[in-house]
Structure to design on (109 residues):
Protein backbone atom coordinates (compact mmCIF):
# COMPACT_ATOMS: atom_id res chain seq x y z
CA UNK A 1 0.00 0.00 0.00
CA UNK A 2 1.42 3.42 -0.86
CA UNK A 3 2.30 5.59 2.08
CA UNK A 4 2.72 9.30 2.44
CA UNK A 5 6.01 10.35 3.98
CA UNK A 6 5.99 12.74 6.93
CA UNK A 7 6.89 15.57 4.55
CA UNK A 8 4.05 14.63 2.20
CA UNK A 9 1.59 14.41 5.11
CA UNK A 10 2.60 17.93 6.18
CA UNK A 11 1.90 19.06 2.61
CA UNK A 12 -1.48 17.28 2.73
CA UNK A 13 -2.34 19.10 5.97
CA UNK A 14 -1.49 22.40 4.29
CA UNK A 15 -3.77 21.49 1.37
CA UNK A 16 -6.61 20.53 3.71
CA UNK A 17 -6.17 23.77 5.67
CA UNK A 18 -7.05 25.68 2.48
CA UNK A 19 -10.55 24.23 2.77
CA UNK A 20 -12.78 22.31 0.37
CA UNK A 21 -13.51 25.37 -1.82
CA UNK A 22 -9.82 25.59 -2.78
CA UNK A 23 -10.15 22.10 -4.25
CA UNK A 24 -13.34 22.78 -6.21
CA UNK A 25 -16.08 21.75 -3.78
CA UNK A 26 -18.86 24.23 -3.11
CA UNK A 27 -19.71 23.20 0.45
CA UNK A 28 -17.41 23.06 3.46
CA UNK A 29 -17.54 19.31 4.15
CA UNK A 30 -14.20 17.57 4.37
CA UNK A 31 -15.00 13.90 3.84
CA UNK A 32 -12.70 10.90 3.62
CA UNK A 33 -13.56 10.63 -0.07
CA UNK A 34 -12.51 14.20 -0.66
CA UNK A 35 -9.26 13.74 1.27
CA UNK A 36 -8.65 10.68 -0.89
CA UNK A 37 -9.19 12.80 -4.00
CA UNK A 38 -6.75 15.47 -2.77
CA UNK A 39 -4.13 12.77 -2.09
CA UNK A 40 -4.60 11.39 -5.60
CA UNK A 41 -4.40 14.80 -7.27
CA UNK A 42 -1.45 16.07 -5.23
CA UNK A 43 0.69 12.95 -4.79
CA UNK A 44 -0.59 10.56 -7.48
CA UNK A 45 -1.23 7.89 -4.86
CA UNK A 46 -4.33 5.76 -4.48
CA UNK A 47 -5.76 5.11 -1.03
CA UNK A 48 -8.92 3.30 -0.03
CA UNK A 49 -11.41 5.17 2.13
CA UNK A 50 -10.37 3.03 5.11
CA UNK A 51 -6.71 3.70 4.26
CA UNK A 52 -7.37 7.45 4.37
CA UNK A 53 -9.12 7.07 7.72
CA UNK A 54 -6.20 5.08 9.14
CA UNK A 55 -3.70 7.60 7.76
CA UNK A 56 -5.51 10.51 9.39
CA UNK A 57 -6.05 8.74 12.73
CA UNK A 58 -2.40 7.64 12.82
CA UNK A 59 -1.42 11.30 12.44
CA UNK A 60 -3.68 12.59 15.21
CA UNK A 61 -6.80 13.53 13.23
CA UNK A 62 -10.28 12.45 14.32
CA UNK A 63 -13.60 12.00 12.57
CA UNK A 64 -16.08 14.65 13.55
CA UNK A 65 -19.77 15.13 13.00
CA UNK A 66 -21.37 18.58 13.01
CA UNK A 67 -22.75 19.47 16.45
CA UNK A 68 -25.65 21.43 15.01
CA UNK A 69 -28.02 21.26 12.07
CA UNK A 70 -27.44 23.21 8.90
CA UNK A 71 -28.92 26.70 8.87
CA UNK A 72 -30.47 25.89 5.48
CA UNK A 73 -32.53 23.04 6.95
CA UNK A 74 -36.27 23.41 6.41
CA UNK A 75 -38.02 21.47 9.20
CA UNK A 76 -41.43 21.82 7.50
CA UNK A 77 -40.09 20.32 4.27
CA UNK A 78 -38.53 17.45 6.22
CA UNK A 79 -41.77 16.78 8.10
CA UNK A 80 -43.73 16.83 4.83
CA UNK A 81 -41.30 14.42 3.22
CA UNK A 82 -41.51 12.02 6.17
CA UNK A 83 -45.32 12.16 6.10
CA UNK A 84 -45.91 11.98 2.33
CA UNK A 85 -42.90 10.55 0.49
CA UNK A 86 -41.42 8.06 2.95
CA UNK A 87 -44.56 5.90 3.29
CA UNK A 88 -44.67 5.56 -0.52
CA UNK A 89 -41.02 4.58 -0.56
CA UNK A 90 -41.65 1.95 2.11
CA UNK A 91 -44.64 0.53 0.21
CA UNK A 92 -42.64 0.23 -3.02
CA UNK A 93 -40.23 -2.27 -1.50
CA UNK A 94 -40.53 -5.87 -2.60
CA UNK A 95 -42.93 -7.75 -0.32
CA UNK A 96 -41.35 -10.19 2.09
CA UNK A 97 -42.35 -13.74 1.22
CA UNK A 98 -40.97 -17.08 2.26
CA UNK A 99 -38.18 -17.94 -0.14
CA UNK A 100 -37.04 -21.22 -1.54
CA UNK A 101 -34.24 -22.96 0.27
CA UNK A 102 -32.51 -23.63 -3.06
CA UNK A 103 -33.11 -22.08 -6.45
CA UNK A 104 -32.06 -25.31 -8.19
CA UNK A 105 -34.04 -27.72 -5.98
CA UNK A 106 -37.43 -26.17 -5.12
CA UNK A 107 -38.55 -29.24 -3.14
CA UNK A 108 -35.60 -29.28 -0.75
CA UNK A 109 -36.33 -28.43 2.91
Amino acid sequence: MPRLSEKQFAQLEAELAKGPAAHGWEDQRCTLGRVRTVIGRRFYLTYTIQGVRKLLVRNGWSCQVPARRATERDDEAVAGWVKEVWPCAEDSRRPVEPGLSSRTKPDSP
